[in-house]
Description:
The protein has 171 residues and is an all-alpha fold. It has helices at 3-29, 34-56, 58-74, 83-101, 110-129, 134-143, 146-170. Helix 1 runs antiparallel to helix 2 (34-56). The radius of gyration is 16 Å and the shape is globular.
Amino acid sequence: MNNRKKTEMLTRSAILLGLAILCQSIRLIIPMPPFVSVFIVGVLVNAILALSTYELGVKNTFLISFVLPFVSYMQGQLPVILFIPVIIAGNGVYIVVLNLLKGNNIYVYGAALLKAVVIYLGVYLASIFVELPPIIMNTLAITFGYAQIFTGCVGIVLARIAIRFLHSAKS
């Protein structure tokens, strides 16, 4: 890869990282119930991860997804620091499965399901080491379970729409 191509990939990665962080920050700017923000922010971040995977590849997208849980923790959205590697692992699974199945129309949505399973199990295992009140555990089960499936699938749909739009704008 020549220097110009490397610079272009790095620039696109930085733009998408900045956009993802901006999307995560929406909940700090616009007041909304936490349950609603999980879906709005989740869909937008998953769309950016899917778009990045399709356009920039696994390596660049993994770098983006590595930063996001740290930002989320600093914003107070992750209650326990042990959840950071769990989110990184879940995002990693999402990215790799998306990349492997990107040409497939239906099975690609399995990326969201696998991400949800990895994150749900990881949060459950991490919570063994940290005592959390039952109300927080129930909220985490919803946030890191069903919500991840929905936001991951809708994120893929939005990314595919964005890619069609971006590619038609290039022609």
